[in-house]
Amino acid sequence: MDMVSERAQLILGLRQNGILNQTVLAALEAIPRELFVPETFARHAYDDSALPIGRGQTISQPLIVARMTDALDLTRRHKVLEIGTGSGYQAAVLSKLSRRVYTIERHKPLLREAESLFRILDLHNISTRFGDGAVGWAEQAPFDRIIVTAAAPDIPQALIDQLSIGGRLVVPVGPDGENQTLLLGIKAETGLELQELGGVRFVPLLPGVEAGNG
Ligand code: SAH
User: What is the pTM of this model?
Assistant: First the structure.
Protein backbone atom coordinates (compact mmCIF):
# COMPACT_ATOMS: atom_id res chain seq x y z
CA MET A 1 0.00 0.00 0.00
CA ASP A 2 1.33 3.50 -0.73
CA MET A 3 1.68 6.16 1.97
CA VAL A 4 -1.44 8.06 0.89
CA SER A 5 -3.72 5.01 1.19
CA GLU A 6 -2.01 4.01 4.44
CA ARG A 7 -2.80 7.49 5.74
CA ALA A 8 -6.43 7.15 4.62
CA GLN A 9 -6.55 3.79 6.42
CA LEU A 10 -5.23 5.38 9.60
CA ILE A 11 -7.91 8.10 9.43
CA LEU A 12 -10.57 5.41 9.09
CA GLY A 13 -9.17 3.69 12.19
CA LEU A 14 -9.22 6.96 14.15
CA ARG A 15 -12.86 7.47 13.19
CA GLN A 16 -13.65 3.93 14.39
CA ASN A 17 -11.95 4.87 17.66
CA GLY A 18 -14.31 7.76 18.22
CA ILE A 19 -12.55 10.71 16.61
CA LEU A 20 -15.48 12.26 14.74
CA ASN A 21 -14.24 15.83 14.40
CA GLN A 22 -13.83 16.20 10.65
CA THR A 23 -11.41 19.15 10.84
CA VAL A 24 -9.13 17.22 13.21
CA LEU A 25 -9.19 14.19 10.90
CA ALA A 26 -8.49 16.41 7.88
CA ALA A 27 -5.49 17.96 9.65
CA LEU A 28 -4.05 14.52 10.41
CA GLU A 29 -4.69 13.49 6.83
CA ALA A 30 -2.81 16.58 5.59
CA ILE A 31 0.44 15.81 7.45
CA PRO A 32 2.75 13.08 6.08
CA ARG A 33 3.70 11.29 9.31
CA GLU A 34 6.38 9.25 7.51
CA LEU A 35 8.55 12.41 7.31
CA PHE A 36 8.48 12.76 11.11
CA VAL A 37 9.69 9.25 11.95
CA PRO A 38 13.26 8.00 11.42
CA GLU A 39 13.82 6.37 8.05
CA THR A 40 14.15 2.90 9.61
CA PHE A 41 10.59 3.19 10.93
CA ALA A 42 9.04 4.78 7.83
CA ARG A 43 7.09 1.63 6.98
CA HIS A 44 5.50 1.79 10.44
CA ALA A 45 4.62 5.48 10.07
CA TYR A 46 0.91 4.68 9.75
CA ASP A 47 0.67 2.05 12.45
CA ASP A 48 -1.37 3.51 15.28
CA SER A 49 1.54 3.43 17.70
CA ALA A 50 4.18 5.65 19.23
CA LEU A 51 7.63 5.33 17.61
CA PRO A 52 11.16 6.21 18.76
CA ILE A 53 12.58 9.44 17.30
CA GLY A 54 16.02 9.29 18.92
CA ARG A 55 17.49 10.58 22.19
CA GLY A 56 15.08 8.41 24.15
CA GLN A 57 12.07 10.36 22.88
CA THR A 58 8.98 9.27 20.96
CA ILE A 59 6.51 10.58 18.41
CA SER A 60 3.07 10.13 20.00
CA GLN A 61 0.54 7.54 18.86
CA PRO A 62 -1.80 9.05 16.20
CA LEU A 63 -4.92 8.28 18.26
CA ILE A 64 -3.47 10.27 21.18
CA VAL A 65 -2.47 13.14 18.88
CA ALA A 66 -6.04 13.12 17.54
CA ARG A 67 -7.63 13.01 21.04
CA MET A 68 -5.47 15.81 22.39
CA THR A 69 -6.04 17.94 19.30
CA ASP A 70 -9.79 17.29 19.49
CA ALA A 71 -9.86 18.24 23.19
CA LEU A 72 -8.21 21.58 22.40
CA ASP A 73 -11.26 22.58 20.31
CA LEU A 74 -9.22 24.81 18.00
CA THR A 75 -10.21 27.54 15.62
CA ARG A 76 -8.12 29.47 13.10
CA ARG A 77 -8.07 32.43 15.50
CA HIS A 78 -6.22 30.57 18.24
CA LYS A 79 -2.67 31.08 19.39
CA VAL A 80 -1.33 27.76 20.69
CA LEU A 81 1.63 26.84 22.88
CA GLU A 82 3.07 23.33 22.70
CA ILE A 83 5.59 21.96 25.20
CA GLY A 84 7.73 19.15 23.76
CA THR A 85 8.20 19.65 20.00
CA GLY A 86 9.85 16.24 19.61
CA SER A 87 9.51 15.19 15.98
CA GLY A 88 7.30 18.21 15.24
CA TYR A 89 4.35 16.07 14.18
CA GLN A 90 1.86 17.34 16.75
CA ALA A 91 2.93 20.95 16.04
CA ALA A 92 2.41 20.37 12.30
CA VAL A 93 -1.11 19.08 12.96
CA LEU A 94 -1.85 22.09 15.21
CA SER A 95 -0.55 24.50 12.57
CA LYS A 96 -3.34 23.40 10.22
CA LEU A 97 -6.03 24.28 12.77
CA SER A 98 -4.81 27.45 14.47
CA ARG A 99 -3.44 30.91 13.76
CA ARG A 100 0.03 30.34 15.16
CA VAL A 101 1.82 27.59 17.06
CA TYR A 102 4.63 28.31 19.53
CA THR A 103 6.53 25.15 20.36
CA ILE A 104 9.36 24.56 22.86
CA GLU A 105 11.84 21.65 22.98
CA ARG A 106 14.75 20.95 25.35
CA HIS A 107 16.70 18.74 22.88
CA LYS A 108 18.34 21.02 20.35
CA PRO A 109 18.99 18.39 17.60
CA LEU A 110 15.33 17.27 17.71
CA LEU A 111 14.20 20.88 17.45
CA ARG A 112 16.48 21.56 14.46
CA GLU A 113 15.12 18.50 12.63
CA ALA A 114 11.54 19.54 13.32
CA GLU A 115 12.26 23.08 12.08
CA SER A 116 13.59 21.75 8.80
CA LEU A 117 10.41 19.68 8.30
CA PHE A 118 8.25 22.76 8.98
CA ARG A 119 10.17 24.52 6.18
CA ILE A 120 9.90 21.58 3.78
CA LEU A 121 6.15 21.38 4.38
CA ASP A 122 5.67 25.17 4.12
CA LEU A 123 4.27 25.40 7.64
CA HIS A 124 5.10 29.06 8.22
CA ASN A 125 2.88 29.69 11.24
CA ILE A 126 5.07 27.75 13.68
CA SER A 127 7.55 29.54 15.97
CA THR A 128 10.10 27.42 17.80
CA ARG A 129 12.20 27.86 20.89
CA PHE A 130 15.01 25.82 22.44
CA GLY A 131 14.47 25.76 26.19
CA ASP A 132 12.60 24.45 29.20
CA GLY A 133 8.91 24.51 28.35
CA ALA A 134 7.82 24.24 31.98
CA VAL A 135 8.35 28.01 32.26
CA GLY A 136 6.20 28.64 29.18
CA TRP A 137 6.87 31.48 26.74
CA ALA A 138 6.12 34.66 28.69
CA GLU A 139 6.84 37.10 25.83
CA GLN A 140 4.05 35.56 23.75
CA ALA A 141 1.49 34.97 26.52
CA PRO A 142 -1.41 34.72 26.91
CA PHE A 143 -2.22 31.65 24.83
CA ASP A 144 -5.71 30.51 23.84
CA ARG A 145 -4.63 26.89 23.97
CA ILE A 146 -1.73 25.01 25.60
CA ILE A 147 -0.74 21.40 24.98
CA VAL A 148 1.97 19.51 26.88
CA THR A 149 3.27 16.36 25.20
CA ALA A 150 5.40 15.08 28.10
CA ALA A 151 4.11 13.98 31.50
CA ALA A 152 4.66 15.97 34.68
CA PRO A 153 3.70 15.11 38.27
CA ASP A 154 1.78 18.41 38.40
CA ILE A 155 0.70 21.01 35.87
CA PRO A 156 3.44 23.68 35.75
CA GLN A 157 2.02 26.88 37.29
CA ALA A 158 3.62 29.09 34.61
CA LEU A 159 1.49 27.38 31.98
CA ILE A 160 -1.72 27.98 33.93
CA ASP A 161 -0.69 31.64 34.34
CA GLN A 162 -0.02 32.00 30.58
CA LEU A 163 -3.42 30.61 29.54
CA SER A 164 -6.15 33.13 28.71
CA ILE A 165 -9.49 33.08 30.52
CA GLY A 166 -11.73 30.60 28.71
CA GLY A 167 -8.59 28.95 27.34
CA ARG A 168 -7.94 25.21 27.25
CA LEU A 169 -4.93 23.25 28.41
CA VAL A 170 -4.35 19.56 27.64
CA VAL A 171 -1.65 17.83 29.67
CA PRO A 172 -0.69 14.29 30.76
CA VAL A 173 -0.16 14.21 34.51
CA GLY A 174 1.44 11.45 36.55
CA PRO A 175 4.67 9.58 37.30
CA ASP A 176 7.19 8.52 34.68
CA GLY A 177 6.13 5.58 32.53
CA GLU A 178 2.85 4.60 34.17
CA ASN A 179 -0.50 5.67 35.57
CA GLN A 180 -0.63 8.97 33.80
CA THR A 181 -3.94 10.68 33.20
CA LEU A 182 -4.67 13.03 30.34
CA LEU A 183 -6.24 16.17 31.79
CA LEU A 184 -8.22 18.91 30.10
CA GLY A 185 -8.24 22.18 31.99
CA ILE A 186 -10.54 25.06 31.11
CA LYS A 187 -9.48 28.33 32.71
CA ALA A 188 -12.13 30.29 34.57
CA GLU A 189 -11.65 33.49 36.60
CA THR A 190 -11.56 31.27 39.67
CA GLY A 191 -8.95 28.83 38.36
CA LEU A 192 -8.65 25.71 36.20
CA GLU A 193 -11.66 23.43 35.87
CA LEU A 194 -10.30 19.94 35.24
CA GLN A 195 -11.69 16.94 33.39
CA GLU A 196 -10.03 13.53 33.03
CA LEU A 197 -9.71 12.23 29.49
CA GLY A 198 -8.30 8.78 30.24
CA GLY A 199 -5.04 6.94 30.82
CA VAL A 200 -1.96 7.69 28.72
CA ARG A 201 1.75 6.96 28.62
CA PHE A 202 4.19 9.78 27.81
CA VAL A 203 7.91 10.38 28.28
CA PRO A 204 8.61 12.63 31.30
CA LEU A 205 8.70 16.42 31.27
CA LEU A 206 12.29 17.02 32.34
CA PRO A 207 13.75 20.15 33.92
CA GLY A 208 16.15 22.48 32.10
CA VAL A 209 17.64 21.77 28.69
CA GLU A 210 19.63 18.73 27.55
CA ALA A 211 23.31 19.45 28.16
CA GLY A 212 25.92 19.12 25.47
CA ASN A 213 23.80 18.97 22.38
CA GLY A 214 24.57 22.01 20.33
N1 SAH B 1 4.88 16.40 20.36
C2 SAH B 1 5.91 15.43 20.05
C3 SAH B 1 6.03 14.36 21.14
C4 SAH B 1 7.42 14.32 21.62
S5 SAH B 1 7.77 13.39 23.06
C6 SAH B 1 5.71 14.83 18.68
O7 SAH B 1 4.69 15.10 18.05
O8 SAH B 1 6.60 14.14 18.20
C9 SAH B 1 7.97 14.69 24.25
C10 SAH B 1 9.05 15.70 23.98
O11 SAH B 1 9.06 16.59 25.09
C12 SAH B 1 10.47 15.15 23.87
O13 SAH B 1 11.03 15.53 22.65
C14 SAH B 1 11.20 15.78 25.05
O15 SAH B 1 12.55 16.10 24.77
C16 SAH B 1 10.39 17.03 25.29
N17 SAH B 1 10.49 17.61 26.61
C18 SAH B 1 10.52 16.98 27.81
N19 SAH B 1 10.60 17.87 28.82
C20 SAH B 1 10.60 19.11 28.25
C21 SAH B 1 10.67 20.44 28.75
N22 SAH B 1 10.75 20.70 30.05
N23 SAH B 1 10.64 21.47 27.87
C24 SAH B 1 10.57 21.23 26.53
N25 SAH B 1 10.50 20.00 25.99
C26 SAH B 1 10.52 18.95 26.84
Answer: 0.97
Per residue in 158-207, pLDDT (tens digit) is: 999 999 999 999 999 998 877 899 999 999 999 999 999 999 999 999 99
Q: Would you call 60 a catalytic residue per the annotation?
A: yes
Nearest to 83 by CA among 128, 130, 148: 148
87 lines ligand 1 (CB under 6 A): yes
- Average pLDDT on 130-136 reads 98
Question: How many Å apart are CA 154 and CA 175, to the nearest integer?
Answer: 9
197 and 182 in contact (C-beta within 8 Å)? yes
Q: What is the spatial distance between Cα 165 and Cα 187, in angstroms, rounded to a whole number?
A: 5
| Residue 89 in contact with ligand 1 by CB distance below 6 A | yes
Which domains, ranges and CATH numbers included, belong to the chain? 48-200 (3.40.50.150)
